[in-house]
User: Which sequence fits this backbone?
């Protein structure tokens, strides 16, 4: 009998780790909350480097200093364990904590501003159902004047506004896509240029920006189509992390893992409809270019160090290396991403199921700036429909300047 | 196509000049798309360099490029075009042992000898890559010795990308450590 009561106590103790909120929330709410938290890609900043989900501590480099993602597990000491659903909603959509502390806008509360209360409550219920992690995230310490959080009140007033973009749509699908792209997905945090005070420039909504040395490309409909994108291809890209246009790399790769691969197909469709409009522009196809046949220095570099994996005709190898033919990165106006990838390489990447791409070595030590420029011109001209516009100085600038 | 008809499909070629295992090779016109591994096999009959994954992952196809400054480096020949090596000096697995005039092996290199003594080679498929990688490491340590206490980490770092499907890593590791320690001037401090 005594043994049995001890077991009961133990069982109760185990149950005791589940917060009251989670017990109240039904299974559907928790599932919906998890889905919304994924769609909002909270993990991107709130996951620890060791992989502990939502325990915070990931550094986010900004021009003003390093901001650390906070612990958003229900830990009462270091997490959000003491938050009410009200307080959570207020922090999520207004960027203000219960004690009046202003969050830095590295937390995309300007994007989350229109998250409906019911979605916030579901996200709250899900986060509160997680195991509390008793770890303190590092304190954000920005230099003066940015260390004065109260100044953010002015920042908030100055930069509230409405987004302007080129893809029109009125359908419910389009509107759902707008919510997923602009609000939950906060795509504009990377893909929209910022002004000198770090605010997203809403007049240039999703027109592309440089982040961490890489370009987050323009996601307006016409530029997407001009780089070979169709709504269907975008859906595939978001769901699989890769498509005929290439594979995700740099900052977009974790977005795929934490967020887009979990989204329902109808939501991916909505995102693609929003990005490209109810009536999407026709994707342009790069005309075959005869530079491939010429004995150019760029072609020689390509055959020497690229063709082994990407194919002599740019066809790529499935599950190994993406094709150059049809690759959207070669079609960007700026050669930045292409140069950076060739210079730095890309680590091995895993995608859905057994799909993976092998590691691509960086060629910083093997190709001079001039040789890299020749190679980049060859690639962009042959498969990107671009002019020969890159010289050694451009390569040097892109690979040595901190952007 | 009748024998009289010219073959309209042309393969672009370029002359390739390369020195392999101390021998300047005859300059020949080589298809510009040919990978180095195929050149070694088909044009030079040097079949010791292995085709493994064909993706640059397993490193069985690794050869050594000797730089003019006296340093050397590993290059994967299954994913690197033959013309990348134009004007370069390389060593393949065939080039390590000392041979007599008849081409018979007289003495093995220290690395090869240690691999034999440790029974490192099992199926042998990865052997050319490991021999070349270990040789590059030993020679680097002769130029730039490391403290004895860092040797194990240095070996792991230098060889970790080489894959042995027989999983004989411990034997490889111990053999390379002995090869380094038997080569004067490779480590500093107490051994």
Assistant:
């Amino acid at each position: 009998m005594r043994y049995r009561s001890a077991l009961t106590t133990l069982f109760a103790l185990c149950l005791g780790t589940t917060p009251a909120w989670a017990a109240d929330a039904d299974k559907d709410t928790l599932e919906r909350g998890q889905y919304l938290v994924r769609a909002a890609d909270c993990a991107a900043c709130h996951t620890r480097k060791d992989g502990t989900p939502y325990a915070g501590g990931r550094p986010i480099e900004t021009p003003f200093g390093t901001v650390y993602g906070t612990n958003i597990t229900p830990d009462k000491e270091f997490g959000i364990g003491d938050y009410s659903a009200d307080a959570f909603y207020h922090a999520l959509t207004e960027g203000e904590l219960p004690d009046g502390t202003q969050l830095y806008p590295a937390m995309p509360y300007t994007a989350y501003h229109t998250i409906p209360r019911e979605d916030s409550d579901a996200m709250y219920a899900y986060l509160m159902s997680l195991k509390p992690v008793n770890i303190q995230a590092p304190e954000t310490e920005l230099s003066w004047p940015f260390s004065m959080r109260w100044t953010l009140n002015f920042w908030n007033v100055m930069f509230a506004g409405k987004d302007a973009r080129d893809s029109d749509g009125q359908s419910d699908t389009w509107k759902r896509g707008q919510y997923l792209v602009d609000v939950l997905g906060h795509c504009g945090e990377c893909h929209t240029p910022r002004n000198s005070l770090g605010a997203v420039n809403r007049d240039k909504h999703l027109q592309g920006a440089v982040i961490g040395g890489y370009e987050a490309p323009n996601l307006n409909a016409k530029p997407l189509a001009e780089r070979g994108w169709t709504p269907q291809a975008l859906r595939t890209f978001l769901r699989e992390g890769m498509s005929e246009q290439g594979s995700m790399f740099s900052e977009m790769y974790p977005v795929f893992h934490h967020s887009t691969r979990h989204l329902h197909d109808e939501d991916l469709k909505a995102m693609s409809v929003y990005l490209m409009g109810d009536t999407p522009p026709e994707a342009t196809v790069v005309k075959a270019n005869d530079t491939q046949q010429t004995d150019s220095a760029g072609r020689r570099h390509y055959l020497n160090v690229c063709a082994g994996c990407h194919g002599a005709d740019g066809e790529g190898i499935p599950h190994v290396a993406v094709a150059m033919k049809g690759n959207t990165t070669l079609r960007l106006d700026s050669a930045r991403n292409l140069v950076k990838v060739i210079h730095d390489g890309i680590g091995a990447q895993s995608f859905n199921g057994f799909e993976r791409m092998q590691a691509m070595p960086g060629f910083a030590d093997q190709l001079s700036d001039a040789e890299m420029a020749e190679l980049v011109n060859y690639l962009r001209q042959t498969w990107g429909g671009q002019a020969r516009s890159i010289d050694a100085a451009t390569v040097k600038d892109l690979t040595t300047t901190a952007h | 196509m009748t024998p009289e008809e010219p073959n309209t499909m042309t393969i672009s070629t370029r002359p390739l000049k390369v020195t392999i295992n101390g021998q300047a090779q005859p300059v020949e016109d080589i298809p510009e798309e040919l990978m180095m591994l195929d050149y070694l096999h088909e044009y030079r009959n040097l079949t010791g360099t292995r085709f493994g994954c064909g993706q640059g992952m397993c490193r069985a196809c690794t050869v050594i490029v000797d730089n003019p400054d006296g340093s050397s480096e590993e290059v994967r020949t299954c994913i690197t075009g033959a013309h990348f090596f134009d004007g370069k000096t390389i060593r393949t697995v065939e080039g390590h042992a000392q041979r007599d005039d008849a081409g018979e092996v007289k003495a093995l290199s220290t690395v090869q000898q240690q691999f034999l003594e440790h029974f490192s080679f099992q199926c042998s498929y990865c052997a050319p890559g490991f021999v070349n990688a270990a040789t590059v490491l030993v020679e680097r340590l002769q130029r730039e010795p490391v403290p004895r206490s860092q040797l194990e980490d240095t070996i792991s770092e230098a060889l970790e990308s080489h894959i042995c499907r027989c999983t004989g890593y411990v034997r490889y590791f111990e053999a390379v450590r002995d090869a380094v320690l038997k080569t004067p001037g490779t480590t500093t401090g107490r051994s």
Remarks:
- Confidence is low (pLDDT under 50) at residues 7-18 of chain A.
- Chain A has three domains: 17-159, 172-276, 290-400.
- Residues 369-384 of chain A form the longest helix (16 residues).
- Chain A is about 40% helix and 5% strand.
